[in-house]
Each structure stands twice: as structure tokens, then as C-alpha cells.
Amino acid sequence: MESALFQLAGRTALITGGGSGLGRAISIGFAQAGARVAVADICIQNAVETATIIKTQGGEAFAERLDVTRRSEVETLINKLLQRWGSLDILVNSAGRAIRGTALDYKEEDWATIIGVNLTGTFFCCQAAGRQMAAQRRGKIINLASIGGFIAYPGSIAYLASKGGVVQLTKGFAVELAPYNVQVNAIAPSLFDTPMVVSTRSDAESLQYFMDRTPAGRKGRPEEIIGAAIFLAADCSSMVTGHTLAVDGGYLSA
Ligand SMILES: NC(=O)c1ccc[n+]([C@@H]2O[C@H](COP(=O)([O-])OP(=O)(O)OC[C@H]3O[C@@H](n4cnc5c(N)ncnc54)[C@H](O)[C@@H]3O)[C@@H](O)[C@H]2O)c1
Fold first, then answer.
1. 180: phi > 0 → left, psi -120 to 50 → alpha, else beta; which?
2. Dist. CA 113 → ligand 1 center (Å)
3. pTM of the model
4. What CATH number did the domain enclosing 56 receive?
5. Which atom of ligand 1 is nearest to the CA of 162?
């Protein structure tokens, strides 16, 4: 008999940034674990592609365009999901951006973009989903932080600040939502092979920098994030909240 602890059967999930990389892997992994998945992304074509993969595999999903920096869009999408499925059980905030630049020259508009998507967008989604989950007296929120929420590396000043913020925002929501049986946690990946990393960290010098500091000696594959996400989304983690789980090949321990 399979344990129900790690099952997502019958659960509904909203995945922001579900059109690419880690968000796509988590969307597909959740659907394979039995969840119905709303795939949201600012790039609708990519969101549709993820939803199509899920449906082809026999799962249930729909795709929607969402800009997480627009609070009204977040609220509209959650209402749409509720009309369709009746409850929102799991939110994964995987929408994110990275723009490289040295701290002393970092452009104000790039700072605003990164903080806007990674931190404020995550806040809008946690708040809107958190209200619904508190009313339901049940829910799971998972934020994509980063090892950069704990340690620093060159060329990413706004990203580091945004992810440090995500680690603390996770704790803040966790303590306020715990009485409502809503658990709020985060995942801190090291370098994973996704379009974001290909576009911002695939130069030889960057790769060398990260691989020298990663005991596992390699990048993660997107599907290697799924286990941690299922753990934080399923009943098995009902007493885990406010935690950021490193999925980093040992980076933060070295
Ligand atoms: N890949 C890594 O090595 C790594 C490491 C640490 C943390 N992370 C975090 O994991 C998350 C996913 O990253 P990824 O590597 O899969 O990147 P990715 O670029 O492959 O996917 C990010 C997705 O977010 C979407 N997005 C961007 N702005 C948006 C907005 N305003 N509204 C809605 N969607 C938006 C993009 O269209 C894209 O589909 C990010 O938060 C990232 O910071 C990634």
C-alpha cells in the first residue's frame, strides 16, 4: 500500500513561472503526484506548453498568462482557479528574474525589475493565496529562494537582496499563517540547468566559480527540485513551516 504522506491526489496547485525551468519541472512533478495544476507565466506560450505536457501524460492542468507584479492579475487568477476547482491547496512561487551587473554600476531600473518580480511579486501571490488558504484552514506555500538568500557572490546585487527578502518573507507569512494550518516554506537551489542560468550564468568563469564551491561538483537538473517541492506540498510536512530547504549539492554546508 502506498503511503498517503507524499500524495497530492485531489489537491489543486498554482505554479507561477510554470512555463520554464524549475516551475515547469514542479508543475509536471505535481501533476504526476496527482495534483490539478494551474500553470501561470508571463509567457503564455510556455505556460501552454507545460499544461500540454501534463495533459498528454493524463494529468489535469490549465495555462494562464500572469504578471506577478500586478496584484489585480494575481487575484483574478486565484478567483478563476477557485471557480474551476473550488479550493487552492498549494501555491508555488517560481516566477523570477535575474539581471547581472556589478553593485557599483547596477541600474536603478534593473533593481526595480528584480525586486518587483522576485520579492514584491512573491509577496502579492503569498498574500492573495494566503487569504484563501487561511479561510480554508488548510494550505501550502512554497517560495523559490536561492543559496543567494544566504550567501553572496559577485554580479547579482539585486538578486541577492530579493532572495534574502524571500527567505524572511517566508518566515513572516509562516508565523502569521501557522494558526490557520497553512505552512509556508521555501527552497534554496544552487545552480540548476534552466533557461535562467543558461542566459545569465553559463559563461566559463561563472560556471567555474560555482562548481568550485559546490561539493557535488555539478549543476542540478530541473527534475531534481521535484522531491523537495512534493515534500513541502504534501501532508508529510504538516509541522514544517518557515523553513528554507537547501537543494544545493552541499553548497551552503561547505
Ligand atoms: N535555476 C537556478 O539555478 C536557480 C537557482 C536559485 C533560485 N532559482 C529561482 O527559481 C525560480 C525559477 O527559476 P528558473 O531557473 O526556473 O528560471 P526560468 O527563467 O527558467 O523560469 C522563470 C519563469 O518565470 C517567468 N516570469 C518572469 N517574470 C515573470 C512575471 N513578472 N510574472 C510571471 N512570470 C514571470 C518567466 O517567464 C519564466 O518562465 C526563480 O525564482 C529563480 O530565482 C533558480
1. alpha
2. 13
3. 0.98
4. 3.40.50.720
5. 43
